[in-house]
Amino acid sequence: MGEAEVAGRMVADVGRAVGVADPGVAPELRIAGSTGLAGRLPVPGLALGAVAAAQLAARSLGGGAAGAPLDLDAAHVGLAFRSERYARRDGSPLGLGFAPLSRFWRTADGWLRLHGNYPQHRDAALAVLGEDVAAAAASRRAEDLETAVVDAGGAAAAVRTAEEWRAHPQGAAVAGLPLLSLDRSADGPPRNPSMRGCGCST
Is 99 within 8 Å of 117 (Cβ atoms)? Predict the structure, then answer.
């Protein structure tokens, strides 16, 4: 599936969720250039679709023309999605933004996603797994590690198939909820902020 198709599907899903597109119909998505993103997963399409879907939702909230084409500068979108690589402190790069623990780890029965950017999350993961995280993770079940790390105050998630997620209590709890919803706390005049830097236009 190409990046434009991935993006188009996301826009159609969001359009239906916010009530600005008929089922199976979405505004035309016009993409100029390339994101420069790559990988095994459809990251370019995800990035473009996320920005286009946000643009469509913003139009819905601001009273814009829902059916007007969505124009994206793919290079701008790509830069925004990896902007942490360009952040500087006193002229020096800050790095990629993720701690070494913040990644997927192979377990005895699958994969575990850890988050270790915050000190308390790092400490909780290390308390459960010890210093040799790879070896410890490989010897235990993903769901057991998820429970242990979360109980210790950390952030961890076992990687599940779509079927496993649907059978999980949390998956069942959100299955009947809409993709998104809006509860207005107050009305205000629509705004038309500059969208420079995100690769989109209103």
Answer: yes
